[in-house]
Each structure stands twice: as structure tokens, then as C-alpha cells.
Design a protein that fits this description.
7-stranded mixed β-sheet; alpha/beta; 2 domains; Nucleotidyltransferase, domain 5; about 500 residues
């Protein structure tokens, strides 16, 4: 048996996977508390993750009817970019600062300037620093909490911390490390010169974790902890990776022509590339994959968060909302929504607000409002997909995950707006499942089992969700999307 774990922002999810056929035989989750404050502060205590791990693992094994002794390996997926700063005893000097923390925006801008602007970032790192990355969090801690900063002995990402808790080893892998802001994503090595600009008092050689290949095992679960968790004494821990990287593996997005789109609170678009990408736009993140190759990625902020806002506004439950969307015609009767309720990352409009245009006494209906919300969220994803250029244009299929992917009408809108076939994997917990697949891959490395073979065997598609674009609707959406782009240009100056 293999364990896949996804330590996300809101919860930790655990799946138990049968190593003979890739079936999930048990799963469970536990919630996390999120600490929020002024200026966009979003932090968590690492104890939230370890306690959630304990509880979810025990329940998942119980649900599977499996003894812990049957577990061979564990793979961890974690929320990207978070800063876990530890002292010499492995104790956090500050609560973990998360990917969606925007308190460090000022420090991020300063770092970009010191690196020579966007082009300087690309030259040194292969991408442009973003506020969510780890780099600005370290710079923020240095300036605002100098005593805590001086105690730093190790800097880890959230999934790295769970690996450390499991094994006692302080390591990182290139996929998740891509989002730190001090890894050269083209060569997969730490940029010590960049790190010195961020934290000149810290010794990079001792503070930065050892980088390992994504297929390497970190080690085995510590004996004391293994006994506490009811596991055997030789359970391997794979390298793991960031949630986007593990989600790519969990959806079989490990070869050219595949695209994974998540319709979650935010939206992510990830494509596979065999070679590093030189981004034409700062919004494209040239991340490494947590296997072979690279995973260029786009993230939008307003997907199910936007549709939920409209759904609650008109007083509908999820089923009623989907029925309302289905009743409205493409184009929502001429209503255009810019759904920037939380600002926006792609396009880069962090301070933007939502707006709606084209409303009349005739077209302002609950059905059209609901349709406009779904269409606008999807238009934002199309905008992001276009930024990925040829990699996206070669896509033959989109693997759709996230809460929004459960809606047949939304799946059809995605297919029509993007003019590509979409399908959902059978396993919806793609990041946790990807962790289990990677764990199996790592465990079988001596036999030379190929990851693509594992994905072909284990990642099964839900054929009932297969949705093909409708030519007439595709044609109509060209003009409707143009209307959305015109609104972007008119209100925010984005061509």
C-alpha cells in the first residue's frame, strides 16, 4: 500500500492506494485553522499540519481496512511557497507564512528592483518573483522580526517540513523549490547569489536544504514516529512536491499536449514542457516538474470564489445555481462581469475590484448573473492559457479538477470557451493521488518502472465527464470573449 498526502491551505487529505492497481481503498481529511490579520497576513502553525496528518492517516487506514504495517511508502504534496523557518532544534521561529499572504508585497517589489527588474529576475531565476513566493517572506521577517530571523538555521517549504517531521532530513526537490524565488528553474540549483541579496546574514550552504532529484527517497519514517503512527519500520518517504506538481502527476499531465486546469477557489493552468520555458510574460511561472521536465503555470484568483459570491447573492444552492447557468444562453444576455472580488493575479491587478456591465431591465435575471459569473471565471482561464502560447495551443485535451469540474454545464462552457475536449479524472484528489503515484515510482526505482507507465495504468478518466466543444457555441464565444477583453481594456488598460 502507498500513502498520498496533500497538505493544503484548508485541510490535509490522505489517500490509501493499492500498489497493485492504483485503486484508492481509503481516504480521509482533517481541517486546518488559518490565522489572518491586517495587510493580507495569512499564517498557520505547523502543528496544524502534523496533527491533521495524524488524524487523517489513522482514519484513512481504518476506512481502507488496512494495517499500517502494509504501507511501503509515503508521498507528500503541499501548498507551495510557504516559509517554514526553523531554529537549530527544528522549532519554527515564526508561524508558517503561506502562499496567499500578501503582507510582503512591498518587500517583493524591492527584491525585483535589486535583481534588475523583471528581466533581471528571468536572467537569474528563469521567472519573475511574485509576492506569494518565499523570497519576500524571508526579507519581511528579516526586517520586521530581526530576533526571529537571527535564529534561523533551516528554511523549508510546507511539504519539506512534513518530510522533515517524518524523517528528520532537511531536503528539497526542484518542483516545489521553483516557487521559493532563489532557485534557478532552468538548471535546478540554488542561486546563492540571489539568496545573499535576500538574507545576507544567513549562510546559504547551511540554511538551504539539500536538493535531491524528485525520484529519490528522502529516507524512512523515524522509528519513534512510525510506532506512534502504527507504521512499519521501513516506510520510505519520497521527495514529494508542491500541490501543482503532484496534481500534474495525479492527472497524468507528464507529457506534451496535456493541460491540467483546476476550477477551485482560485484557478490554475499547468502544462507539461520537456524543456525550460523562457517566459514572455511575468505572469507565467516557469516551474520545474516533480518528475522530469518543467511545468509552466498560470494562476488566477477568482474562480469558484467568484461563482460562490454570485450564487449567494441570488440565494441559490449549488444545484440551483447550475440549473440557472444552464437556463441562460451563452453570453448571459449581454452582461459582462470582471470577477475581481479578490483582486487578480492573472492579469496582474492585485488591487482591482469586481465590476459588471451591460445590464438592462430585461437581461438582469438570476440566470444571466449566474451565467456571467461562470463565463467570466472561464474567460480568465482562457486569458491565462493564451499567455502560455504554443505549449497551450498544442493541447489535445484538458484534464479538469476542482469543485467547479463537478458541474456538467461548467465543463461544457470550458470546452466551448477553450475549444478543446475536457475530461475529469476518476480521482478528484489529484495532488494526494499524485503523491501516492510518486511514492510508488520512488519505491520501484530499482526495477526501472517508468512514471508514464504508472500514470497510464493508475490515472483513469471518468468517461462520463468527457465533454467536446460544440462548433456553433465555440464560434459565438469568440465574440463574447472579445467583449470581456474590451471590458478589461476599458476599465484596466489591458489590451
Amino acid at each position: 500500500m502507498y500513502i498520498g498526502v496533500d497538505c493544503g491551505t484548508q485541510s490535509t487529505k490522505v489517500v490509501v492506494v493499492d500498489g497493485s492497481d492504483g485503486r484508492i481503498v481509503g481516504e480521509a481529511s482533517r481541517p486546518h485553522k488559518l490565522e489572518q490579520g491586517d495587510h493580507g497576513r495569512r499564517e498557520q502553525r505547523v502543528e496544524e499540519w502534523t496533527e491533521a496528518f495524524r488524524g487523517a492517516l489513522g482514519e484513512a487506514l481504518s476506512n481502507a481496512g488496512v494495517e499500517g504495517a502494509a504501507v511501503r511508502a509515503i508521498g507528500i504534496s503541499g501548498q507551495q511557497h510557504g516559509m517554514v523557518a526553523l531554529d537549530g532544534d527544528g522549532v519554527p521561529v515564526h508561524p508558517a507564512k503561506l502562499w496567499n499572504d500578501t503582507e510582503t508585497a512591498e518587500w517583493n517589489e524591492r527584491l525585483i528592483d535589486r535583481l534588475g527588474g523583471e528581466q533581471g529576475c528571468i536572467d537569474k531565476l528563469g521567472l519573475v518573483l511574485q509576492t506569494g513566493y518565499t523570497a519576500s517572506k524571508i526579507a519581511w521577517l528579516r526586517e520586521t522580526h530581526p530576533q526571529a530571523y537571527r535564529r534561523i538555521a533551516t528554511l523549508l517549504l510546507p511539504h519539506d517540513y512534513l518530510n522533515f517531521w517524518l524523517t528528520g532530513e532537511r531536503v528539497a526537490e526542484p518542483g516545489d523549490a521553483s516557487g521559493t524565488g532563489y532557485l534557478d528553474t532552468r538548471t535546478r540549483i540554488w542561486r546563492r547569489d540571489v539568496f545573499e541579496l535576500i538574507a545576507p546574514e544567513l549562510d546559504a550552504d547551511s540554511v538551504l536544504p539539500r536538493l535531491i532529484d524528485s525520484r529519490q527517497a528522502i529516507g524512512t519514517v523515524r522509528p519513534t514516529l512510525a510506532r506512534e503512527l502504527g507504521l512499519g519500520d521501513d516506510v520510505l518517504v519520497s521527495s514529494g512536491g508542491g500541490d501543482n506538481m503532484m496534481g500534474a502527476i495525479g492527472t497524468g499531465n507528464i507529457e506534451p499536449g496535456r493541460v491540467t486546469i483546476s476550477l477551485g477557489t482560485s484557478g490554475t493552468i499547468a502544462v507539461h514542457s520537456p524543456d525550460p520555458v523562457v517566459p514572455d510574460n511575468a505572469m507565467v511561472a516557469n516551474f520545474c516538474a516533480s518528475h522530469d521536465g518543467w511545468l509552466p503555470l498560470i494562476c488566477t484568483m477568482n474562480v469558484t470564489s467568484a461563482t460562490t459570491t454570485l450564487r449567494e447573492l441570488v440565494g441559490l444552492d449549488i444545484e440551483g445555481f447550475n440549473r440557472a447557468v444552464a437556463k441562460a444562453e451563452p453570453g448571459a444576455g449581454g452582461i459582462t462581469l470582471l470577477p475581481f472580488f479578490s483582486g487578480e493575479r492573472v492579469p496582474a491587478l492585485p488591487q482591482a475590484q469586481a465590476s459588471m456591465s451591460g445590464m438592462t431591465s430585461f437581461n438582469t435575471t438570476p440566470e444571466n448573473l449566474c451565467r456571467a459569473a461562470v463565463e467570466s471565471a472561464t474567460f480568465g482561464l482562457r486569458y491565462g492559457l493564451e499567455l502560455l502560447g504554443p505549449l497551450a495551443s498544442q493541447a489535445t485535451q484538458v484534464r479538469l479538477v476542482g469543485g467547479g469540474a463537478k458541474s456538467p454545464v461548467w465543463r461544457q462552457i470550458v470546452a466551448d470557451v477553450l475549444d478543446v475536449e475536457v475530461v475529469c479524472p476518476e480521482v478528484t484528489e489529484a495532488a494526494a493521488f499524485g503523491g501516492a503515484i510518486q511514492a510508488r515510482w520512488c519505491d520501484d526505482r530499482e526495477s526501472g518502472v517508468a512514471l508514464d507507465a504508472l500514470c497510464r495504468d493508475w490515472v483513469k478518466l471518468d468517461e462520463s465527464t468527457l465533454t467536446r466543444p460544440q462548433p456553433e457555441t465555440v464560434a459565438s464565444y469568440h465574440g463574447i470573449y472579445r467583449r470581456y477583453r474590451d471590458a478589461l481594456s476599458r476599465e484596466h488598460g489591458i489590451a
